[in-house]
Write a structure and sequence with these properties.
The chain has 326 residues and is an alpha/beta fold. It has twelve helices and 14 strands. It folds into two domains: 183 residues, Rossmann fold (3-Layer(aba) Sandwich); 129 residues, Rossmann fold. Strands 3-2-4-5-7-6-12 form a seven-stranded mixed sheet, with helices on both faces. The protein has a five-stranded mixed sheet with strand order 9-11-10-13-14, with helices on both faces. Helix 1 packs parallel to helix 7. The termini are far apart.
Length: 326
């Protein structure tokens, strides 16, 4: 069993599916000869040919449209947007066609496509290369939004996304692409979509997060243990559809919840989680739900991007505030 990084796990999953399913194709800007900006597809065109790993022009709307057309005709395209900030020209195709074709055709057509995009800040890139706008897609009926937070989950969730009969937006937190390694077996075993993963059991407070922020959240949980506070850590993983049952069950046990995400605060996915906790878990809460998020402003340039992004210190403050309220 090899120890690999998150970006290597993405590459491994892509290679597994293209080798085992003749309907799978990869397409995007520079995915073939260059292997992608972050080398997630490095070597795949040389291994499988340029009819399976396809370099496209610099035309995001075209990439999405072609992928949708392929998917309606029985193929399983995996399209790439080079960065989350380049995904916006694709939204017209995603919301008007990919998300609606099953409904529009009364089930006659489906769109089994995956749209991959590196997302999030923390790599000293300009603002369009550092955005976390997952809530845009979470608001679209008919689209799944999946965000892995470790190499093993990247491998298993990407396999599941490619095998899913409906469109999946697969957002890869590039800040942790090569941050750490895990043992991952290339066995073709997927992980379930539409459910949270409980990364750590606890009894005093529930910490809910996803993507790269799992790093700071787990660090905060370690620090809280030293303070005598037992934190349960939940990786949401699929933010649409949202597995509220797991979150509600945890909050029923702990009575407190802090939600952590890198995206801007207003109308972020954390707001939806907090709203559902108020609707369905109010009597289990000993204190108001707290959110630790990015700010309602453009991601700043690298000299101050760390001030924008939630830190372990900010998470600890929110937890201590919650503990003092109850």
């Amino acid at each position: 069993m090899a120890e690999i990084t998150l970006v290597e796990a993405v590459s491994m999953a892509l290679a597994h599916e293209i080798a085992h399913d003749p309907d799978v194709v990869i397409l995007g800007e520079d995915v073939g000869i260059n292997g992608g900006v972050f080398r997630a597809t490095a070597g795949l065109q040389q291994r499988f040919g340029d009819d399976r790993v396809i370099d496209t022009p610099l035309a995001e709307a075209m990439i999405a449209g072609i992928a949708i057309g392929m998917a309606t005709q029985g193929m399983k395209p995996v399209a790439e947007a080079q960065f989350m900030g380049f995904i916006y020209p694709m939204i017209d195709q995603i919301i008007c066609h990919a998300a609606r074709l099953r409904n529009r055709t009364r089930g006659r057509m489906s769109v089994p496509m995956v749209l991959r995009a590196p997302y999030g800040g923390g790599i000293h890139a300009p603002e369009h290369h550092s955005e976390s706008t997952e809530a845009l897609f979470a608001h679209m009926p008919g689209v799944r939004v999946v965000i892995p937070s470790s190499p093993s989950r990247a491998y298993g969730l990407l396999l599941a996304a490619i095998r899913n009969p409906d469109p999946v937006i697969f957002l890869e937190p590039k800040r942790i692409y090569r941050l750490y390694k895990e043992e991952v077996t290339d066995d073709g075993e997927d992980l379930p979509l539409d459910m949270c993963f409980v990364l750590r059991d606890g009894g005093d407070v529930t910490l809910v997060t996803w993507g790269a922020m799992t790093k700071e959240t787990l660090e905060a949980a370690d620090a809280l243990t030293e303070q005598g506070i037992s934190a349960e850590v939940i990786d949401v993983a699929t933010i649409k559809p949202l597995d509220m049952d797991t979150i509600l069950e945890s909050v029923k046990k702990t009575g407190r919840c802090v939600i952590i995400h890198e995206a801007a605060r207003t109308c972020g996915v954390g707001a939806e989680i907090a709203a559902q906790l108020a609707e369905k878990g109010l009597y289990d809460l000993h204190a108001p739900v707290q959110r630790v998020t990015g700010y309602d402003t453009i991601m700043p340039l690298y000299k101050i991007e760390k001030k924008y992004m939630p830190s372990t210190a900010r998470i600890l403050k929110a937890v201590n505030d919650v503990m003092e309220m109850s």
